[in-house]
Amino acid sequence: MSKDNLLDAIIAQTKLTKKQTDKQQKIVETAIKLFAEKGYANTSTSEIAKAAMVAEGTIFRHYGTKDNLLLSVILPFIKDSIPTMAEEVFSEIMSKNIGCFEDFLRALLTNRIHFINENREIFQIVVKELLYSDELRKELLPFFTKNILHRISKVINLYKKRGELIDIPNNTIQRMIFTLIGGYFVSRFVLQPDNLDLDEEAEIENLIRFIMDGLRKQ
Q1: Which of 7, 8, 94, 194 is the most buried (most CB within 10 A)?
Q2: Mind listing the pLDDT tens digit of every residue in the chain (218 residues)?
Q3: At what angle are helices 56-63 and 22-38 packed, to 10 degrees?
Q4: What is the DSSP string of the chain?
């Protein structure tokens, strides 16, 4: 699997944590391994219970649903890993031959589309939960604000100084960018996940054109 696959990283992390009972630890490790091998949608709670050698009712008692089981390990992982992941992503992007803000957007979109493709089912579940859960949004928003938005703001300041971007507040630019990119990701990977015939490069270029037409300094 790719180094970007979250299930591989989560499996490694579950072996290090002792915050759960031995039975919960066994359920979680077994579930994540089956998700990685068969895919989330193709893995049933009965299969997890059989492989973990527990009653299926034990899974429901601890987690309620298969989605909650996955979220119970995804969310702590996201909180623990966002700082490192954000640093790695931005370091990788900025290490490329980034000549202008348009190049930055192209590298960022390419990087994140590849990442979401590697973690499509996890992305779908997290997005759906974020849409319906105020508590989850409040829980995760500070981590994204601290580790991602301030990095984006630094990049915006850099290209403002170079005279490439219009002089409007950074939070306005961030909101425009994340509305367009976030909306695209949700539409493509959650609302229309079966639309596999897209020309990815053309999609990226169209999205960049929409963003830059609003931000480029004339």
Answers
A1: 7
A2: 345 677 777 777 666 666 667 788 888 888 888 887 887 888 899 999 999 999 999 999 888 888 888 888 788 888 888 888 889 999 999 888 888 999 999 999 999 999 998 888 888 888 888 888 888 888 888 888 888 998 999 999 999 999 999 999 999 999 999 999 999 999 998 888 777 678 889 999 999 999 999 888 77
A3: 100
A4: --TT-HHHHHHHHHTT--SS-HHHHHHHHHHHHHHHHH-STT--HHHHHHHHTS-HHHHHHHHSSHHHHHHHHHHHHHHHHHHHHHHHHHHHHHTS---SHHHHHHHHHHHHHHHHHHTHHHHHHHHHHHHH-HHHHHHHHHHHIIIIIHHHHHHHHHHHHTT-B-SS-HHHHHHHHHHHHHHHHHIIIIISTT-----HHHHHHHHHHHHHHHHB--
SS (H, E, C) 86-97: HHHHHHHHHCCC
- The residue whose two tokens read 């390990």 is 73
Whole-structure pTM over 0.85, yes or no? no
Tokens in use for 16? 């290090």
Residue with tokens 């803000």: 101
Contacts 24+ apart (CB under 8 A), 86-93: 86/147, 86/148, 86/151, 90/151
- As beta bridge partners, residue 24 has none
